[in-house]
Design goal:
This protein has a single domain, classed as Aldolase class I (TIM Barrel, Alpha-Beta Barrel). About 40% of the residues lie in helices and about 30% in strands. It is an alpha/beta fold. The chain starts with a strand and ends with a helix. The relative contact order is 0.15.
């Protein structure tokens, strides 16, 4: 299982939100590029980078910073935020990120989703952001009427291979992950699933490991790492022990 340290970029800085609230952000670094290098030095195997401004507006606001991160580290980078047009898809895919995360457009623009599947194949990941079991879009600001389970079936039909499952209510709250929702999602699909949101303790990661869901292939960690609840090395040990 891959442990992804998260680097969420807002106004050029690395921040963490609470429950996806753009007005409730904690700044953890003024230099996201240096932060990426620090995670690499600590033994990270991959990074999860999100342009929060792009996720909200649909414009690649912090694209230049993301490009610098990709150049500054030798790690595979998983990027998401603002990919809602062929142009933005091509720009992001062309800078060397390993995985491209499509969020809003995967539910609002199925033609673009299919083009992305055909072009990127296993490099494409879809962000499955959920509020009370329903899919959220536009940087988590809007809630749709489509359930996460129904949406994952649509993604399967289009040939998507991997999703990032986020319970928005848990994200950044340090209250523990929604492992029941994760288990239900993993059992409902053959897609690979990466969990995001709510991890606060090493025991959360141990419980994640004990789910024994073979298609859960990764976990994204943010606030718990930044507030030093545990180290990256400890997290990696916990999911593999």
């Amino acid at each position: 299982m891959i442990v992804f340290p998260a680097i969420d970029i807002q106004n050029g800085k690395a921040v963490r939100l609470r429950r996806g609230d753009f007005d409730d952000a904690t700044v953890f670094s003024d230099d996201p590029v240096a932060l990426a290098q620090q995670w690499q030095a600590q033994g990270a195997e991959a990074l999860h980078v999100i342009d929060l401004d792009a996720a909200r507006t649909g414009e690649l606001v912090n694209f230049e910073i993301v490009e610098r991160i990709v150049r500054a580290v030798s790690l595979p980078v998983q990027y998401g935020g603002g990919i809602r047009s062929p142009k933005s898809l091509a720009l992001v895919a062309g800078i060397g990120v390993r995985w491209v995360v499509m969020g809003t457009a995967a539910i609002t623009a199925l033609d673009l989703l299919q083009d992305a599947v055909n072009w990127l194949e296993d490099r494409l990941v879809v962000g499955l952001d959920c509020t009370d079991g329903m899919v959220a879009t536009h940087g988590w600001q809007e809630r749709t009427q489509m359930s996460a389970i129904r949406f994952v079936k649509v993604l399967e039909q289009h040939g998507v291979r991997r999703v990032v499952y986020t319970d928005v209510a848990r994200d950044g709250m340090m209250g523990g992950p929604n492992l029941i929702g994760l288990r239900d999602m993993a059992e409902a699909t053959s897609l690979e699933v990466i969990m995001s949101g709510g991890v606060a303790l090493l025991d959360d990661l141990r419980r994640l490991r004990r789910l024994q869901a073979p298609n859960v292939v990764g976990v994204i960690l943010g606030r718990a790492l930044y507030e030093k609840a545990f180290t990256l090395a400890e997290a990696m040990d916990a999911v593999r022990a």
